[in-house]
UniProtKB/TrEMBL annotation, chains A, B:
This is Thiamine-monophosphate kinase. The gene is thiL. NCBIfam families: thiL (TIGR01379). Its EC number is 2.7.4.16. It comes from Rhodospirillum rubrum (strain ATCC 11170 / ATH 1.1.1 / DSM 467 / LMG 4362 / NCIMB 8255 / S1). The lineage of its organism: Bacteria, Pseudomonadati, Pseudomonadota, Alphaproteobacteria, Rhodospirillales. Mg(2+) 5 binds at D218.
């Protein structure tokens, strides 16, 4: 039976349907941008999460709700949009009882309040299969130009927010593949898997400052490849410069092969963006304003590929480019 | 294990989360209405459809796509909104191959073009369970006041578009519960189950004319009850006046008990609305403008309940109020 992968499905089957709709940006960005009645700044995006694919059945229901919301908030961050409201469709399996739903609602409510986002509507259906949640999020540019994947320029610095690999390593901890870790480091990684930290404030601070911008959901190298394709550029990434948490650094010191989780792991939900060299200080200054670390990890070059280099300048093989959420 | 039904879940668990967001209209209407940067007319709604709950696994993939889109278009019709664009999240089961997806895309593309709606974005994920599609739709009021469920007034006429019960009877035909029907009548009912006819043009024609308005997706009496609750009124429905297709009338002549499918069946996707008696001619005139029949089926009274009366003025028992899509 012939089956396309997700990217081929979007590119070959759905993108042609969106070709007549300029607002869709060719389905190639983190969100669509609509010129709403001449105000030009409605940003909208949708993400679905499936039990045992994007979260685990025994994750706490409040963190599942928050992860669903936060992956969508991360798409707004990637566009430099201010989140306004969401619609939630919930497909609920018979295994989920009232107490589970109340936990889910508690987590959702907490994050809606924390991120100042309204619940606009949605739908609730039953499914005999695994639970699934789909969120559509609406955001506003407030008159600013949206950040897109296609605006990276040769000569730009390449930046990333926060730390990389924590979410992918956290999934492996949950799956029992990483043992013997100190409890606080273990808890950090698991929390990063369960609770992405959407960089909404950073996205706002990067308005008018970043060139190319996207969030990392499929893994650094896969998403860097998407940035290259959209901007028609190449990227050189300095592997030793990649920011690691203490927990990730500890795991990788013990298991060097797990550095691939930093390069190819998913569930980062950090921002990957480019900016002019002349704006280096301005980008660094966003940390003071937002509390989110930003690290310069490479540069934009002419070309079309992602080249990850080690401390000696030699290219590093990337094994797991295009991580598929633990599948 | 305690489990709320869908309406209790929305009312008790999700509605409190939406209380701080006036645009959500308390989650009680067919869509939310946002005051987008002072232009006040962004209407947005989401609906999910699950295989073997809202469509059948062996339905043609092009009609499944079109049904997903059309149930959402029906929500825009209910608000009197002009549909603008949709986002689609597709959770695909391993059983769906490339040929199936191409059929799905072909149907989706045909209806996007027919209804002048753009594909704005979405997400594609894998699920080990049944296929599921969730669509969020955006529409515009073009400066008009949205039609809502809460605006019915005592003394109004009660109207319905098209014919009732066809979709619910079509499902029963597909399930082999109705046999011996002539092929053209059978085909009519099955097509009405597979392909709702969203009354978008009628919704636009009812701007400024209808008072309370909603679409019928859960069955006439259940949805009439929602209109009553939202508008704090009662409804008297004249059963002999309910509009039936030739196919439905034929089935019911043979099996009078199936009249319950007209009263309580789902999958109608017709508009149920109220309007002033003084506007009776204006409402009737929408048929000439839109090609969609409208039938006066009762009146709005003081009270809080739906009272269906037979030709003798006696109340009719409604067995299946709150149909759950064949579940």
């Amino acid at each position: 039976m012939a089956r396309r992968g997700e990217f081929a499905l979007i590119g070959e089957v759905f993108a042609p349907l969106a070709a007549s709709c300029p607002a869709a940006l060719g389905l190639g960005d983190d969100a669509a941008v609509l010129d709403w009645r001449g105000r030009g700044d409605l940003v909208v995006s949708a993400d679905a999460l499936v039990c045992d694919v994007h979260f685990l059945a025994d994750d706490p229901p409040d963190t599942i709700a928050r992860k669903c919301l936060r992956t969508n908030l991360s798409d707004m961050a990637a566009m430099g949009a201010k989140p306004v409201g969401v619609l939630l469709t919930a497909a609920l399996s018979p295994a989920l009882d009232d107490a589970w739903m109340e936990g889910f609602a508690r987590g959702l409510g907490a994050d809606l309040a924390d991120f100042s986002v309204g619940l606009l509507g949605g739908d609730t259906v039953s499914t005999p299969g695994p639970a699934q949640f789909s969120i559509t999020i609406l955001g506003s540019m407030d008159g600013h130009v949206p950040l897109t994947r296609s605006a990276a320029q040769v000569g730009d610095d390449l930046w990333v927010s926060g730390t990389l690999g924590d979410g992918a390593l956290g999934l492996r901890v949950r799956q029992g593949q990483i043992l013997g870790l100190a409890e606080d480091l273990r808890a950090h990684l698991v929390e990063r898997y369960r609770l992405p930290r959407p960089r909404v404030g950073l996205g706002l601070a990067l308005r008018g400052l970043a060139h190319g911008c996207m969030d990392i959901s499929d893994g650094l190298c896969a998403d860097a490849g998407h940035l290259c394709a959209a901007s028609r550029v190449g990227l050189v990434i300095d592997a030793p410069a990649l920011p690691l948490s203490e927990a990730a650094a500890t795991v990788i010191a013990d298991h060097p092969a797990l550095f691939q989780a930093v390069l190819g792991g998913g569930d980062d939900y950090e921002l990957l963006f480019t900016a002019a060299v002349a704006d280096r200080d301005a980008v660094a200054a966003t940390t003071a304003a937002t509390g989110v670390a930003v690290t310069r990890i490479g540069e934009v070059v002419a070309g079309s590929a992602v080249d990850v280099r080690d401390a000696d300048g030699k290219s590093v093989a990337v094994v797991a480019a295009g991580w598929s959420h633990g599948e």
